[in-house]
């Protein structure tokens, strides 16, 4: 039966992270009422640094937060690619004048909590948004008149639409798609944040995101919190088989896992890290099923990806904005949700694939690494910009734009 809404809808949003809050804000700006149901006892975000490319800034602009994130973020001048064995500076993707003119916005880094805080404050200021913490969604049911979020405490919340923005282990996805646990990548990432004052001045690089690449491992660092801290993220393809999140590890273990990085400056920076925590990275294969009548997936619940393309948050923001735009004057809810999924799936699947395939760029050894360095080093500034244009340079957030998002197979 077709679900029509000539009046504003009440949209339930499962999950109060970046994607969920952005969706609530976009839907409220579209004239609907949003009720955000967050599992945690309070609305907060954990994690460290997050990179926001111009497409993410554009999405935030359309949510009314462009100026705020540009003011909060550290504006990067380059993505620096270093050989972590030889210490060679292979190339840099410049992010200054030509990049910003081409893509319309800067490339910034922020602390994840800063971005979440901007969205949370905007939601609290919006009278059409209700925020409910300590409200864990475990599933849903629906009928011709609406959708109901089922809660862990045995209660329920009724609305017209349910948006599952409840992350990679989404309860909404578990019912809608039923594809089990996420795929374990076999890669462990170690993260730490250190005060910039502890970093030797010659290693601070206040406007650079720097990658050190090595055999089966790499190391990324960049400034966050207005340059007050340095975010460290070191990855090791160590064949991990158990999904872990936020487990404390000692500095010695991190050094051992990244032993393949022998460049002196890479070692100096790794040695600065304290209070390291580890995560075994997980993602999922792209799927075509994002909707079930009045229920739709968004963000990591729809298209979880490895963080190596630095696009997870950006793609969730794009989702939110497009969903809001499509819901502005909708009179047919189920068709609108299906259209949203159709317009987002090829683009997000292509980013998921790019994030996985980037491991081949970061982790080769020996002659393969030397060949990579030669090929990358031969690319001009324009060549490098062209390589990221399909991700960073969009003006709409639909797979039907001018870019080719050919991707097969689907799960």
Task: Tag the structure with descriptive keywords.
globular; alpha+beta; six-stranded mixed β-sheet; eight-stranded mixed β-sheet; single chain; disordered C terminus
Note the main sheet.
8 strands, mixed
Number of helices: 13
Shape: globular
Number of strands: 20
Assess the beta-strand content as a share of residues: 25-35%
Spatial strand arrangement across the major sheet: 6-5-14-15-16-13-18-17
Runs in which pLDDT lies below 50 for 5 or more consecutive residues are 407-411
Distance between the termini: 28 Å
- Classification by helices and strands: alpha+beta
**Nearest-integer average pLDDT:** 94
Secondary structure: helix percent:
25-40%
Round the Cα radius of gyration to an integer and report it: 21 Å
What does this structure look like?
It is a single chain. This protein is globular. The chain has 13 helices and 20 strands. It has 411 residues and is α+β, with helices and mostly antiparallel strands. The protein is 34% helix and 27% strand. It has an 8-stranded mixed beta sheet with strand order 6-5-14-15-16-13-18-17, sandwiched between helices.
């Amino acid at each position: 039966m077709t679900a029509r809404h000539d009046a504003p809808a009440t949209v339930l949003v499962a999950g109060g992270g970046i994607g969920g809050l952005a969706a609530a804000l976009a839907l409220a700006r579209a004239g609907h009422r949003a009720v955000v149901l967050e599992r945690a006892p309070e609305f907060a975000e954990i994690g460290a640094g997050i990179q926001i490319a111009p497409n993410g800034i554009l999405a935030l602009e359309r949510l009314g937060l462009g100026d705020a994130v540009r003011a909060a973020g550290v504006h990067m001048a380059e993505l620096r690619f270093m050989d972590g064995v030889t210490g060679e500076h292979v190339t840099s993707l410049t992010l200054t004048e030509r990049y910003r003119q081409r893509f319309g916005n800067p490339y910034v880094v922020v602390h994840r909590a800063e971005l979440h805080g901007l969205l949370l404050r905007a939601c609290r200021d919006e009278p059409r948004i209700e925020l409910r913490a300590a409200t864990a969604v475990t599933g849903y049911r629906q009928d011709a008149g609406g959708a109901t979020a089922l809660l862990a405490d045995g209660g329920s919340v009724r609305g017209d639409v349910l948006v599952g923005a409840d992350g990679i282990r989404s309860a909404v996805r578990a019912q809608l798609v039923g594809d089990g646990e996420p795929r374990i990548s076999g890669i462990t990432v170690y993260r730490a944040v250190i005060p910039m004052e502890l970093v030797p001045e010659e290693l601070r690089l206040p406007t650079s995101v720097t990658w050190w690449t090595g055999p089966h491992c790499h190391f990324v660092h960049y400034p966050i919190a207005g340059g007050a801290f340095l975010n460290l993220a070191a990855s090791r393809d160590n064949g991990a088989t158990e999904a872990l999140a936020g487990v404390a590890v000692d500095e010695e273990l991190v050094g051992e896992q990244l032993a393949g990085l022998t460049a002196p400056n890479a070692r100096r920076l790794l040695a600065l890290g304290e209070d390291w925590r580890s995560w075994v990275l997980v993602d999922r294969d792209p799927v075509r099923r994002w909707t079930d009548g009045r229920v739709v997936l968004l963000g990591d619940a729809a298209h979880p990806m490895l963080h190596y393309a630095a696009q997870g948050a950006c793609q969730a923001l794009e989702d939110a904005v497009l969903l809001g735009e499509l819901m502005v004057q909708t009179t047919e809810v189920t068709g609108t949700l299906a259209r949203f999924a159709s317009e987002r799936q090829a683009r997000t699947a292509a980013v998921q694939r790019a994030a996985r395939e980037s491991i081949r760029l970061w982790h080769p050894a020996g002659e393969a690494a030397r060949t990579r360095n030669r090929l990358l080093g031969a690319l001009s500034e324009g060549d490098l910009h062209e390589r990221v244009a399909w991700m960073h340079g969009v003006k709409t957030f639909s797979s039907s734009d001018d870019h080719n998002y050919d991707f097969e197979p689907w799960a």
